[in-house]
Amino acid sequence: MTYKSYVFSITLRVVGLLISLTLLAFGIAWLNTYAIIGGSILSLITVYNLYRFVIKRFVEMDDFFESVKYRDFSRWFVDTKGPQDIRELHKGFNLVNKTIKAIDSERQAQFVYLQKILEMVNIGIIAYNVESGDVLWVNDSFLKTLDFPSFKNISFVEKRRPNIYDELFETYHSNTASVTLEMRQETLKVLISDTVFEMEEHSFKLIVLQNIEETLNRNESEAWKKLLSVMTHEIMNSIAPITSLAETLQKSIQDSMEHPETRKLELEDVNAGLNSIKKRSEGLMKFAKTYRSLNKVTHVNKTKIKASDLFSNISELMKPSLEEKEVDLGFKLKDPNLLFEIDSYLIEQVLINLILNAIDATETVSAPQIVVSATLSHKGTAQIKVADNGSGIPSEIMDSIFVPFFSTKKTGSGIGLSLCKQIMLLHGGKIQLRSSEKEGTEVSLVF
């Protein structure tokens, strides 16, 4: 309809121009002054009218395209006044603006929806421009995991945490990889994967970061429960043959007592059977004692205690062992009023275990030294550290030292460090290790 109205209007003006030009040509050919003047005036009027008609439409379209250029789709063109074709043109413009606004609103809603989902997931996500380093998008989980404030360019990370910058932004992880990041006062185990994509002639890198330490601790706690259940079952299975052997011996003795002439008691068999029961019972007692130390720790009774009092108790308890080994045990405490809300009995057990391990690790050192310190981190979390200058822990067994029953000592049960970790998990904390062979070990209890 708009097209037909436009064609009719422009055709009418072109016909009018042809008529005025014909009149002008007739006047010139016949030297008719009136025809020349009339034709000239009519020609000028029709040319001007045609020019205004065409230019007005082009101006309207140029105005619309200008608003499209600057993405101003809120403008409303008047479609109730003016020529019919312009009104129809304005209706078309308004329809385009309305459609684009609807598409934009839908896209914006989808973006907000996706953004909320990505903010809620417990996985860190960041996307940035590879060339400029400008951050396209980053969620709170990424910032929280790495303890970063909000930043607009990855150069912020390069200046403050070069090690993390190299691992995250300089290293390409084609497959999901487990890496350990060195934070300010702790280490963090994460899963990391990344990919590069193109968008509007620019290259962007998307990095996905997942803190797996909490998941590992939760899974380990569940594994403990299953392990204790399984081992209880195994203990019962071990008791069954002892019971059976005892019943057999009892029956033999009873038969010998009732029929002494026909059923003589074989003392060697009885002795052998009793020895078997004794040995197996001793093994089960030792086994049960080991598991009891694991099973009894199911909850904590927290009370407030000064770090200085805790250290004083440990010092008194460890004096005899230290005097025999000639080990220098020192305590460092910047704030004597530093308080811990802990189960002091269990934490004393943890510290004694760690100090005994440190004593064993410094046996081959000429000047053995152990330092126990307590600090308050910048996050407000309390930490106790036990450091020694011993032989250190080989890197190949670092991931196994907290596994129940894993031990490198000939007389070790492999329960000590596992029990320490279990106690820290019950406190809602964690235990971390830093060790270098022939340089020493530092164990941190983070509450």
UniProtKB/TrEMBL annotation:
Catalytic reactions on record: ATP + protein L-histidine = ADP + protein N-phospho-L-histidine
Q: Which SMART domains match?
A: HATPase_c
Q: Which domain of life is it from?
A: Bacteria
Species of provenance: Marixanthomonas ophiurae
Sorted alphabetically, which InterPro entries does this protein's record hold?
BphY/WalK/GraS-like, EF1B_G_C_sf, HATPase_C_sf, HATPase_dom, His_kinase_dom, Sig_transdc_His_kin-like_C
Q: Which SUPFAM superfamilies match?
A: ATPase domain of HSP90 chaperone/DNA topoisomerase II/histidine kinase (SSF55874), eEF1-gamma domain (SSF89942)
Keyword match S-adenosyl-L-methionine: no
Name of this protein: histidine kinase
* E.C. designation(s): 2.7.13.3
Cite a single GO MF annotation: translation elongation factor activity
Could you tell me the keywords of this UniProt record?
ATP-binding, Kinase, Membrane, Nucleotide-binding, Transferase, Transmembrane, Transmembrane helix, Two-component regulatory system
Q: What Pfam families does the database record attribute to this sequence? A: HATPase_c
Q: Which residues form the Histidine kinase domain?
A: 230-447
The regions listed as transmembrane in this protein's record are 7-28, 34-51
Q: Does the keyword Transmembrane apply?
A: yes
* One Gene Ontology term from the biological process aspect of the record: osmosensory signaling via phosphorelay pathway
